[in-house]
Amino acid sequence: MKLYIRNMACESCKVLVKEELVKLGKQPLHVELGEVDVKEKLSEKEKKQFSAAIKKAGLELTASKEGVLVDKIKANITEYVANADQIRSKLSTYLSKKLNYDYAYLSSYFSTMQANTIEQFTISLKIEKAKEMLAVDGLTLTEIAHKLNYSSVAHLSAQFKKVAGLPASHFKNLNKVRRITIQNL
Q1: Model pTM?
Q2: DSSP summary character for residue 19
Q3: Residue 165 in 3-state DSSP?
Q4: What is the mean pLDDT of residues 116-130?
Q5: What is the pLDDT of residues 43-73, one digit of tens each?
Q6: Structural class in CATH, domain 2-63
Q7: Following DSSP, what letter does each residue of 7-65 receive, concatenated?
Q8: CATH class of the domain at 122-183
Q9: For 11-45, how does the pLDDT look when each residue is reduced to its tens digit (9 = 90+)?
């Protein structure tokens, strides 16, 4: 029996799902983000118990594969951005290969379900990563542009200002001021 679970985003989620199924006396055969294969079928009572148990961790049992597809798209985009300096394929190719769907379908489905495009989501994620690299890692914009596969520093700067609402240099200076203030306490 296949179960579909929304909001699974990490290895801890997989562990939790396995543990809750074992508590019900069910043997999970295969657990991946968003999907679980169980040896035996779950009764309606068991489904309710399982659903209540995983809900405490923010997970949600859903009736169809499509219910978890947006989560899988987001998880793969997050992986793509986190490893941007090592991945040389386009995002569309990457997602199609990872999820075994045509990119046009994934893009259309994502936009319909999220009222946002894959591109907009990816840009927002990249800018959050850039903020982290500026604030925590202390990298330069040139280094960040390279790590996030931007065509130029100017392109990164323009997107940063559009998404964050302020230039990257201003953001970096604000962070320096905050750090000095905290150190003086």
Answers
A1: 0.71
A2: H
A3: coil
A4: 94
A5: 999 999 999 999 998 998 887 776 788 888 9
A6: alpha beta
A7: T--SHHHHHHHHHHHHHTT--EEEEETTEEEESSPPPHHHHHHHHHHHHTTT-EEESST
A8: mainly alpha
A9: 888 899 999 999 999 999 988 888 899 988 889 99
